[in-house]
Amino acid sequence: MSFGILNNIPALSAENALNATQLALNTTLQQLATGMRINSGATDPAGLAIANGLGANIAALSQSIHNANDGIGSLQVADGALSQVSTLLNTAVSIAAEAATGTVSSAQRDSLNAEYQAILNEINRIGTSTSYNGTSVFTASTTSIFLTDANSSSTITSSVGALSSTTLALNSTTLAGNDGTAAQTAITAIDAAIQTVSNNRGTLGAAINRLRDASAVMGTQVENLTAAQNNIMAADIPTAISNLSRQSVLNQTGMAALAQANSQEASILKLLQ
Questions:
Q1: pLDDT at position 272, please?
Q2: Residues 126 and 252 in one domain
Q3: What pLDDT was estimated at residue 267?
Q4: Over the range 200-237, which residues count as b (16 or more CB within 10 Å of their CB) and which as e?
Q5: Is the residue at 4 inside a domain?
Q6: H helices then E strands: how many in the chain?
Q7: Which residues contact 142 (CB under 8 A, 6 or more apart)?
Q8: For the chain, which ranges sit under pLDDT 70?
Q9: Residue 153 and residue 256 share a domain
């Protein structure tokens, strides 16, 4: 066996093995510290790309759920306002029925008509002042709720419509007069308005249910995509702990081997003594 001092091949081999062990040990320690299997693109480039794509899907779906919930909130505000309008119209029917009877005097009809006109004014106020997030609820424009999962998108549209005594065809009705003819005509118009409001509430209810269904579906998607992302990104803690024990032992034995390899050159000096 020959000895030389030009290159210490055993020491180089031990050093290379020790470097590899320390890199693996650092990766394992980082996984345990962060709880993530992938902490950089170098760990698993393909897995990181897939996980990032899933993250984009999750973010888009989560925002879409918020969009749907905002749409539900707006429609519920409109439905609540229409519920109050229904109550007002029911009161208006009672007042009109009282004014229509022949036992009521003209002066009394004027008083009943004043109350009736106040109801119409309140309906107008509800139509103009009811808002959600600073935006008027009762408008003629269509509201589009944007939903997406970052790969494809869709919209759910709803239209509440304007609300006023004019849109309900009540603006020209009156209970005043010497007889109950005008009041009887008003009753017919009020009944039609009640039916219109009921139909509008039914349409709003269907739109609310559709948005709730969409939100539930997207919630399930977020749950499943989050689970898939977790499977890719999350560290397997028991495996990482096992790797830590093995790599710690290899790190210690690698240092001992490197020290032993370096000590071989020192033995050559004894030949020169």
A1: 57
A2: no
A3: 66
A4: bbebbeebbebbeebbeebeebbeebbeebeebbebee
A5: no
A6: 5, 4
A7: 157, 158, 159
A8: 1-8, 264-273
A9: no
The per-residue pLDDT for 137 is 92
Q: In the prediction, which pLDDT does 124 show?
A: 96
144 and 20 in one domain? no
Instruction: Say what angle helices 45-100 and 181-233 make with each other, to 10 degrees.
Output: 170
CB 58 within 8 A of CB 187: no
Q: What whole-number distance in Å separates Cα of residue 226 and Cα of residue 216?
A: 15
- Residue pair 99/175 in contact (Cβ under 8 Å)? The answer is yes
Q: Quote the pTM value.
A: 0.78
Q: Do residues 162 and 99 touch, judged by C-beta distance below 8 A?
A: no
What's the structural domain count of the chain? 2
Give the residue among 253, 227, 250 at the shortest CA–CA distance from 28.
250
Task: Write the DSSP assignment of 157-207 as a string of letters.
Answer: EE-----STTTTT-TT----SSSSHHHHHHHHHHHHHHHHHHHHHHHHHHH
The reported pLDDT for the residue numbered 29 is 81
User: What confidence score (pLDDT) does residue 117 get?
Assistant: 96
- Quick one: pLDDT at residue 1? 47
Tell me how far apart the alpha carbons of residues 62 and 264 are, in angstroms, rounded to a whole number: 64
Q: Is residue 3 part of a domain?
A: no
Q: How far is CA 231 from CA 66, 226, 227, in A?
A: 26, 9, 6
172 shares its domain with 136: yes
Q: Taking the mean position of all CA atoms in its chain, how far away is CA 35?
A: 26
Residue 6: predicted pLDDT = 58
Q: What is the rounded CA–CA span in Å between residue 22 and residue 9?
A: 20
